[in-house]
User: What shape does this take?
Amino acid sequence: MSLTVFSTCLFSYSMANAQSKTKPVPVQKNMVQHNGNVFELWSPPADTIYIENIETGEQEKKISMIDSFPIKMNDIAIAGHKDVQELPLPERSINEYFIDFVNENKDLFNQLHDGSYILYARHFVINEAGAIMYYKFEGIQESRNNIKTNSPEISKQMEQIKLAINNQVNALITSGKIVFAPANKNGKKIMAMANGARIYIKVKDHLANVDI
Assistant: This one.
């Protein structure tokens, strides 16, 4: 497997520096700091569900957890979708930015193992000027059905490629290239939550394509 494209130029900034700018840092319970701002998070209560085991016929208890998301920034309320007349909207579909990102970085995505992957960025907070103040991106995820390698060396290479992709995604989101029109409530621009992006990618014979 050739990794000639995967070079140090992909790490134009270090992992530590990238994470310090993009990864929320816990301050106290239900509070995180992100790029100098303090966000209060709301965590929905866990939901208990029962699923029938098809092999035993018995009911099994499962705990369903829902993502926590920001409700205040620096003690200022963040409006939800139901609180505004007009949601924060990018100049074009936010998925389109991510599709272009994949297509522009094919040399990097082509180095992934064959299989299915997801880029999922969510919980975008857009301020009154249309700037992204907060988002959640936990890295490129791969399908459980992908064939796993038993080679530690190849596993390490894949983790490096994923790290490079993650850094590039964070760079895209924080670059200012994704421009939003802010939310509107009663004719006033306010800070609010915006819809996120979810992109499915399939890699076959080391050729990556967005699965639309």
In short: Residues 1-20 have pLDDT under 50 and may be disordered. The radius of gyration is 20 Å.
